[in-house]
Amino acid sequence: MTERRERFTLLAPGTLWLTVFFLVPLVAVLVYSFWKVENYRIIADPGLRNYAKILAGDIYYGVAVRTFRIAAVVTLASLIISYPVAYFLARKVRRFRFMLLMLIIMPLWTSYLVRTFAWALVLGRNGVVNQAIQGIGLVDAPLEWLLYSEFAVTLALVHIYMPFMVLPIYAVLERFDGTLLEAATDMGASKFKAFLTVTLPLSLPGVVAGTIFVFVPAIGAYVTPELIGGTDGMMFGNLIAQQFGGTFEYPFGSALTVLMVAFVALIVSIGLRYGGLRRV
Questions:
Q1: How many whole angstroms separate alpha carbon 160 and alpha carbon 166?
Q2: What would the pLDDT profile of 69-118 be if each residue is shown by its tens digit?
Q3: Which of 57, 105, 139, 165 allows an S-S link to 210, with CB 3.0 to 4.6 Å?
Q4: Which residues make Cβ contacts (< 8 Å) with residue 207, sequence separation at least 6?
């Protein structure tokens, strides 16, 4: 009984917090998604009209596809950049490892909003990139597509979320047993083959964790596409925000939210089930 009481005492605050600030709002959104709006009044008339509206609208499908594409590209680009960095820190650096880790984490100390606005200054019509390429004569006029585009959103999100990919991969590689590579080399494997057959498979839990840490917030991004995406970089989070803040379509916005949460929950469940995240 004492052990059970101790467990309840430790778990109760976190359970209460998640129930009040996560579960209850989520249930409210689910209920609202079946209601409707008439004359700017929310009416409790259960039905599937909001979900049917989503399935019938090409614009919602297009935004959903763009959102998934941006999130997938951001995750893949973050992985391609982060894996060599994490491997270098975990396997090749000893003396300055802590300092280099701090340099990777340091951008997280800066406001998300500030980092997004910084990219607006870099990619804008009179930004650093346009001034540089005009200065060396590559173009005669500023490139308009750099800002307020899908490219700008993707680039900014890679910069913002890349540390969340580096750290879990580093955590796995840092605890990697180097004698396994020695054994593979003794059995005739080259360094590249030893990496493919030993290091890479054993680091997959870190890769899966990093993928979830990047993909989930990227697919729900709102601030970055709102500030530097324009119409070409609009994502699902912006579409949801419009229903709540602009058109007073709370039930329809709730239906969009439910679909996004369900999709993200599916991705996370697959990662938890098959990703071996307990080893991270």
A1: 12
A2: 999 999 999 999 999 999 999 888 888 888 988 999 988 888 899 999 99
A3: 165
A4: 79, 83, 168, 169
